[in-house]
Amino acid sequence: MNKPWNNKAWFLVLPVLALVAFSAAIPLMTVVNYSVQDTFGGNQFFWAGTEWFEEILSSDRFWAAMGRNLVFSGIILAIEVPLGILIALNMPRRGWGVSVCLVLMALPLLIPWNVVGTIWQVFGRIDIGLLGRATWALGIDYNYVNDPFDAWITVIVMDVWHWTSLVVLLCYAGLVSIPDAYYQAARIDGASRWAVFRYIQLPKMKRVLTIAILLRFMDSFMIYTEPFVVTGGGPGNSTTFLSIDLVKTAIGQFDLGPAAAMSLIYFLIILLLSWVFYTVMTNYDAEK
Amino acid sequence: MAATDDTMTATRAPAVRIRRRGERARFAWLVPTLYIVFLMLPIYWLANMSFKTNQEILGAFSLWPQEPTLRNYAVIFTDPSWYSGYINSIIYVVMNTVISVTVALPAAYAFSRYRFLGDKHLFFWLLTNRMAPPAVFALPFFQLYSAFGLIDTHIAVAIAHCLFNVPLAVWILEGFMSGVPKEIDETAYIDGYSFPRFFVRIFMPLIASGIGVAAFFCFMFSWVELLIARTLTTTDAKPIAATMTRTVSASGLDWGVLAAAGVLTIIPGALVIWFVRNYIAKGFALGRV
C-alpha cells in the first residue's frame, strides 16, 4: 500500500512511546548501570568496566544453562511443529466440530503459567498423580523429582501440552484460507495425498508456519514459570534454564552485577532473533 | 451408446477417488480427538482432585471422587486471602487491557496509514519488547516502581504488563486496520469529519472485531503472566496465581484447595475463548494471516 509521508503521525504514536519507554527503556538503563558497576553493600557503587561480562562469558554455569535452553528449544520445535501440522490437517473444516476443537485446543493457552506447572506437578507425582501412577503400574521407573531424565521428559511433555495448540491454530488458519478450487484441480490431476500436502498445503502454510516457529522458539527460549514450578530447576541443575538461572542470581543471591551482565547478553540474543523474525515477516509482507 | 459409456467411466473415476479420500477422512477425526483427550487428561485430574478431601487424595487412588465434596471451593470463597487474589488479578488485567488498547489504537492507525521519520525502527523496537524475557525486567521493575512508591498497587502491575501487551496490541490492530480500504478515511474527511470524530464514529466500528481480538490477547497475556506480577506485589494486589505458589511452598500442602484454585483460574479463560474462537489464530499471527 502506498502510504503518504506525514510526520504529524508521530503525535498518534506518542502515548505508546511514552508508556513503553517508561516500562522498557528506564528499567533497561538500570540494568546497563548495574552491569558495569560493583557494590560492597550500602549504596556505594564502583566502576567495574567489562568485568562482569567477562566473568559471565567465561563461566561454565552460563554456557551450561544456555546449552540446556538451546537443546530444549530444539526438542520442542522438533515435536510441536510436525505434530501441530498433523493435527491441523486432520481437523474438521465445517460443522459444530470446528468450534469444539478450537475452544478445547485453545484452553491450555489461557491457563496461568504457574497453574500449568501445578497441573503437571500434580499429574506427574508418583503418589497422587494419574501419570505417575500409570507409569508405575506399567512398571516404568518414573520419578521427575529425583531423575534428571524424567524431569526433562516431564518438562518437554508439559510444553508440548501447553503450546502445540498454538501451532495447530496457526496452521489451521493457513489451511482454511486455501480455496477449494486448488483441491479440485489436484483431484483432476490425480495428485497423491503427499503431493497435495507438499505442493498446495505446505506452501500456503509457509507464512503462518514461520510465525509459529519463531514465536515458539522465542517463547521457549524465555521459559521460566512452568519448569520453575514443576522442578524448581532441579534435580541438581538439570532443568535450570537461562531465565531460572538469571532470577536465581538476581533475586536469590542478589549478585546484581553478574545478573545484569547476563540480562544484557540474554537480551542481545533475543534482539538478534527478533531482528531475524522481523526481516522474514516484512519480506513476506512485501512479497504479498 | 459408446458416448454414454465414456461419460460413465469419466465420472466414475473421480468418484472412486473422492470416495477413497472420504475413507481416509473417516478416520481423520481420530487425530484431533486423541490430541484433545491428551489435553483434557491433566485438567480432568485437577478437577477430579478439587472435589476430593485431602485424605482421599493422599490415601486412596481413584479415577473419580468417591465422596465428592465442595469443601475446597467453600474454603476459597470464604477466605479473603484466597478470593481477593481473584479480584486483584481481574482488576489489574482489566486495567491493563483498557490502557493497552486505548494507547495502541491511535498508534496502530499511524503505522497503518502513514510513513514517518523512524517508523520502521519504532515498529521493530516495539516488537523487541514483546520478545523481551520477563526475567530480565523483574528486578529493575521492582526498583523503578519502588522509587515511585507504586509497589503492591494494581496500577503498577497493569503498567508493567504494558511492556509486552502494548506492542502486541499495536501489531494486531495494525494488521486489522490495514485491511480497511483507505478510501473510507478520505471520504469521511471530504464529508467534513474531524479526525477524532471520524476515528470513533466510523473507523472503530469497522475494526470492532480487531479491537475485540486485541483486547482478548491483552487479557490473556496479562492473565497468564506471573513473574512480574509476583515481583511487584506483596499483599494488597497479590494475584491469585501467586497466592497459589505461596500455598505450595509454605503451609502443609492443602492439595484439595490448591486444585480448586487451579480449576477456578481456568474458567475465565474458557469463557473468553468462546467469544473469539474464530479469531484466535489471526491474533496469534499478530494480525497477519
Task: List its salient traits.
A: 288 residues, mainly alpha, two-stranded antiparallel sheet, globular, B: 289 residues, MetI-like fold, 2 domains, 78% helix, 0% strand
Quick recap:
Chain A has about 290 residues and is mainly α. Chain A has helices at about 10-35, 50-55, 60-90, 95-105, 115-125, 130-135, 150-175, 180-190, 195-220, 225-230, 240-250, 255-285; strands at about 35-40, 45.
Characterise the protein shown here.
- The complex is a heterodimer of chains A (288) and B (289).
- Chain A has helices spanning 9-35, 51-57, 60-90, 96-106, 113-124, 130-137, 148-176, 180-188, 193-221, 225-230, 242-252, 256-287; strands spanning 37-39, 45-47.
- By secondary structure, chain A is mostly helical.
- Chain A has one domain: Orthogonal Bundle (MetI-like fold).
- In chain A, helix 7 (148-176) packs across helix 9 (193-221), helix 9 packs antiparallel against helix 12 (256-287) and helix 11 (242-252) packs antiparallel against helix 12 (256-287).
- Chain A is globular.
- The model of chain A has no long low-confidence stretch (mean pLDDT 83).
- Chain B is an all-alpha fold.
- In chain B, 45% of the residues are buried.
- Residues 1-23 of chain B have low confidence and may be disordered.
Number of domains of chain B: 2
Helix content of chain B: over 70%
End-to-end gap of chain A:
11 Å
CATH topology of the largest domain in chain B: the name is MetI-like fold
- Fraction of residues in helix of chain A: over 70%
N/C terminus separation of chain B? 51 Å
Radius of gyration of chain A using CA atoms only: 23 Å
Strand content of chain A: under 5%
Question: What's the CATH superfamily of chain A, by name?
Answer: MetI-like
SSE layout:
The complex is a heterodimer of chains A (about 290) and B (about 290).
Chain A lengths: L8 H27 L1 E3 L5 E3 L3 H7 L2 H31 L5 H11 L6 H12 L5 H8 L10 H29 L3 H9 L4 H29 L3 H6 L11 H11 L3 H32 L1
Antiparallel strand pairs in A: 1-2
Helix pairs in contact in A: 1-12, 2-12, 3-7, 3-9, 7-9, 9-12, 11-12
Chain B lengths: L1 H25 L3 H21 L3 H5 L12 H8 L1 H34 L5 H13 L2 H14 L6 H24 L5 H8 L4 H12 L1 H17 L2 H6 L7 H10 L5 H22 L3 H5 L5
